[in-house]
Write a structure and sequence with these properties.
33% of the residues lie in helices and 16% in strands. With 322 residues, the chain is an alpha/beta fold. Helix 2 links the parallel strand 6 (89-91) and strand 7.
Length: 322
């Protein structure tokens, strides 16, 4: 047995930074290896992507991901490097900028290679930094999709996700609007973000749901039941905050992981963030990761997580941290 102390120094509302600290009294068994994790997942059953993608949100103005990215050419170079490294799934949203994040992706990568998937999200009104309002009304969703198609220079969006449910609009009405836009040929697959398990099941009664993007990481497993259900249903689960980051602040708290996580990282000649990402890839075969960064060095480090094979014991011990 081992004793784990997992201390979280962050407010649940604003997701500020935290520290992981673990201690254990038994020798870890790292000789039994798991089978290599699947490298790809087919979103919606027919859109095959590599499971380690890239979240482009940080390529926007700061603070609060508002306005165009200051180093536009550097951002374009980073996106192109991501594709060179094997990334063929890039996540963005109308709210990032708003619109500027989709613009920089198109500027860097359009015309897109055949296997590159750019997923975006809509249903948010963001008039100022930190002023983020849900607007999943049919009119706003229709306007949002048309704007994303124009900015991304696409005729059809491969994966369009409802950014968050709008308490002012019946959830079913928002999903029905997306279903109609899919029927109109604007969208290939429909996804949801920041939803409960009950909302996911409600949406499935209306249209086929290809993905769910909820917050999930080694340090925050609030949506475990939703992840497990997605795994059973063969729905892609795209965790945001996979390294414990606050979406409106810089920094990745899991870089501060100590104890067992650090010990496992040292045994693999890896960083703690790479172990955190590798654990997620081992956690479920339908997880698609979208860690974000603004530096090529961090991008290259994150990509190495897909080559780490954790032992069954390591996966088990990390999973038991709470």
């Amino acid at each position: 047995m081992f004793l784990s102390l997992f201390q979280t120094f962050r407010d649940a509302k604003d997701h500020s930074s935290f520290l992981i600290s673990t201690r254990y009294s038994v020798k870890m068994n790292t000789t039994t290896s798991t089978q290599p994790t699947p490298k790809t997942f087919a979103i919606g059953g027919d859109l095959t992507v590599n499971r380690l993608g890239y979240g482009a949100m940080r390529l926007t103005g700061q603070p609060s991901n508002f306005g165009p990215y200051a180093d536009w050419e550097g951002g374009k170079a980073l996106l192109r490097r991501a594709v060179e490294l094997g990334v063929n799934f890039i996540d963005t949203a109308e709210a990032y900028g708003p619109g500027d994040n989709e613009d920089i992706i198109a500027d860097a990568l359009s015309p897109y290679t055949k296997n590159l998937v750019v997923a975006t999200k809509g249903g948010i009104f963001k008039p100022a930094p930190g002023n983020i309002q849900a607007d999943a009304s049919p009119d706003n969703l229709r306007r949002g999709i048309e704007g994303s198609l124009q900015r991304l220079k696409l005729e059809k969006i491969d994966l369009y996700q409802l950014h968050r449910p709008d308490p002012k609009v019946p959830f079913a009405k928002s999903v029905q609007t997306l279903a109609a836009l899919q029927q109109a040929g604007k969208v290939r697959h429909i996804g949801l973000s920041n939803v409960t398990l009950e909302q996911l099941k409600e949406a499935q009664g209306i249209v086929s749901i290809a993905s769910v993007q909820n917050r999930f990481s080694l340090s925050d497993r609030t949506h475990k039941a939703t992840l497990d259900y997605c795994t059973e249903q063969n729905i892609a689960f795209i965790p945001h905050g996979s390294l414990g980051a606050n979406p409106l602040k810089r920094g990745t708290p899991l870089t501060e992981a100590k104890g067992m996580i650090l010990e496992i990282a040292q045994q693999h000649d890896a960083s703690t963030t790479q172990i955190a990402l590798a654990w997620l890839l081992h956690r479920a075969p339908n997880i698609i990761l979208i860690p974000g960064t603004t530096t090529v060095a961090h991008l290259e480090d994150n990509m190495k997580a897909s080559s780490i094979t954790l032992s069954e014991s390591e996966v088990s011990q990390i999973s038991q941290l709470a």
